[in-house]
Amino acid sequence: MRLHFALATASWLVILAIISHGWQPAAAAGFPTLSTVSRWIVDEGGNRVKLACVNWPSHLEPMLAEGLGKQPVGAIARDVVSMGFNCVRLTWATFMVTNASYSSLTVSQSFLRLNLTESLAAIRVNNPALVDLKLIDAFKAILLPCSMVVSSLGENGVMVILDNHVSKPGWCCGNNDGNGFFGDTYFDPDVWVDGLTKMATMFAGATNVVAMSLRNELRGPRQNSADWYKYMQRGAEAVHAANPGVVVILSGLSFDNDLAFLNSRPVNLTFAGKLAFEVHWYGFSDGQAWRTGNPNEVCARVAASVSRRALYLLDKGWPVFLSEFGVDNRGGNVNDNRYYGCVAAVAADLDLDWALWTLQGSYYLREGVLGLDEVYGVLDWAWCKPRNETALNRIHALQRPFRGPGLAEASPYTVLFHPATGRCVVRGASLLQPLLQLGPCGETEAWAASSSQRRLALRDTPLLCLRADGAGRPARVGLSCGDDMARWSLVSDSRLHVAVNVSSSAGENGGGGGLLCLEVGEDGKSVVTNACRCLSADNSCDPESQWFKLVTSTRSVAAASTVLAQLTEKLRPWKIRSLR
């Protein structure tokens, strides 16, 4: 415990010394300067940089990044890195830099005025040098370790997006909280632009700050597109003038659910190659529709709606950042569980940049409740370990890019992605009995999907294709590819059921007849085929085990596929019909 305290103190003494002599960012730690090319975010060389972020709030009443009473900032940074995130969306409140009654406060004063004495005592233990800093200096100090402390965010190449979440600090968001839209009680556009300018200027030399999001979840009775154009364009120009290195991210209306108005009138800015848009998508955005409706029908309807309102911008050549999505990580929320399979399928299919809500396992103070547990947090209440390892593991497949500029490691191929687990279809260990199972997406098979032939063949070994053997039987690869058991189609509204129609083959293939869908076996690993479930009408049915998304990828293919290709060449002279 003494060593732990000494290390924390030493780190913060370095930070305090730098702040006392005027803040200067540390030398670059290999962070890219980001820009945009069509729908992609890229580095200086034009290569794709996929944002795989987690949200870390600092905008509530204490105006200090959550969790600093639970762990040293370096430990939290290491957790971010160990969980596979390359980016933090760090939120802030405008009044922290524009309102003297807030900006003049030290961390100690801020916590004492809220009667957060226990949290303050805990911060003294875990991050002692923070306590007497001004709030803005403490905010800077959260970023300083990013390029100074071993194993911190910067040392591990983790980028930061500064997100202006609210004006008056507090929980977000309500339609009538005074923080929602330009002209609301606490949302003076001039003060807002001043705050953006100050933050952009302050972090202009911090190479790990790669983007700034202008405002979170515009909303409320005042919202309108005319004022959106007037002020968001003004804010974008102010940020770019103060810090031309960052990407500027614009949010939409209706709690960041609506960017449809841009379809008829694009933004008009003096700069180019530095603009992206953001959208939020939660299960509760559609009430309890996922729980009460048929999941396939709800997924199709909601995904189409999100596309019309925001994701259509990808086709118009703009990056769209899914800056908030997430689930109740306790695992028992049916609405969230069904939603997740759909949003993960869309995120993989479009290879979106994203920020998961959220890092924090608990809050200092939220809506009057001390130490409130955040069930959407990837960390537990004590910030000691992941809240739900299974939920965390399934996000890993989305952290790596599937495709994009500079990622032409292989010619395009199809991945069979299972969104509920975040795993992909791979072959079992034996080449001579090539049954299929779920495995890491980095070890995926490279499939070639032929819509005309309705065939899923191994791209580099086209003689081998995906086959069904009947209800309850393992799916496999084989050489017999011309019959119904090898003709696959997408059969549900969600287009997530991959099925063969074996009505004419029911007798010889184990019964069941009709449609057989790919499914994860009862062991949670094997890939089998069973009668398709939940295709329509049934609202109580859960289709997650049968949801697979065909995703296009160009990243490198596992070497085992090449071994199988060589084996097939050796077998070709014997004209073996099938590997059974």
Automatic annotation (TrEMBL):
Domain Glycoside hydrolase family: 72-360
Pfam families hit by this protein: Cellulase (PF00150)
One GO molecular-function entry: hydrolase activity, hydrolyzing O-glycosyl compounds
Family, as annotated: Belongs to the glycosyl hydrolase 5 (cellulase A) family.
Protein name as annotated: Glycoside hydrolase family 5 domain-containing protein
Domain of life: Eukaryota
Biological process according to GO: polysaccharide catabolic process
Entry keyword Chaperone: no
Residues of the signal peptide: 1-28
The entry's keywords: Glycosidase, Hydrolase, Signal
